[in-house]
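**Polypeptide and fold**
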Amino acid sequence: MSKSTASLPYFPLPPAAYTPQYMHEVIRAFSVYLQQQQTPGPLRATSVTITDDTGAVDYGAMAWNSTAGTLDLTMGNDITQQVGMESYILAENNTGSDIPNGSVVGFSGVGADIRVAPYIADGSVPELYFVGVTTSEVPAGATRPITVFGKVRGLDTSGFSVGDILYASPATAGAFTNVRPTAPNAVISVAAVLVSDATDGEIMVRPTIPLGLDYGAFSDTTTQTPAVINTAQAITLDTTNSANGISVASSSQITVSQAGFYTITVAYQLQSSSSSSKDVYFWLAKNGAAMTNTTRVYTIASNNDYKPVTISYPISLAAGDYVELMWAASDTTVSLAALSGLAFAPDAPSTVVTVTQVQL
């Protein structure tokens, strides 16, 4: 029998009459085959053909899917990946509870792999923490593939219509909504509905995360008066009208959670309580220190006269920085005046400030 450098178990050609040597060669070929089955090694070939629609195969094997026009890779836990059309990331569920198939999940820490938990888009979790959609149930403590692009099947999509765009829900962690959320909720377009069905629903995951810029709108409903002339004093704020990523600490410290370039716009309502002329100074402090070239001065004189003042500041801030609105006056007979109890109009705060992130 001719020998080959390949490791395949070639069988000998049968002779015209039975010989012990031929039987020996047949037994040897079967022995090689059985050894390869028990201890498979590398296979080198110029081409491999996967036959049409080979269907479900064992874990770790591939089969041709003529409907999708690609290879199906059978993975563990009843997951089949369509090669080239679906992308996964391995993630661990450390929440202590099972996460169902088809749940929207977000980053929650790092272990051997990244950790995920059901994601809620109510503004309490950064948009960039979004990861993807579970492609199977993820038991507590288990690690499973998470779909970041591709189809997820076997879902209850009966509450949606084919073609609906699904967003991460701001009301229920891990859920979808087909109603686009509005601020201060996060807007994350997660998937499109391919099949609407109570048990065999199907979605196409292809996340789009819009650039989520932070903002804050704050005001003060009290009247503030300088205690001493020509003395710096921080303006307090007692009301958060709306905010995402920006907050007020210690009554006056407007604090940002992420670095970026911001615009701070302030509207003051000045009132004079005497007929003497007085100068009022406004400026900005950053992390407790006055900022250069931010002072603006205004003059008010008439008794009971009101004067609106609006100032805008462009400023670059690092994560955790805070700014304070500062003021001083040459006379104590002036105030930042709040109005309330008007029968014909809403109340008027003494100070209104909006902070808008314009660039990350």
Observations:
- The CA atoms of residues 257 and 320 lie 5 Å apart.
- The helical segments are 20-38.
- The two ends are 74 Å apart (CA to CA).
- Residues 20-38 form the longest helix (19 residues).
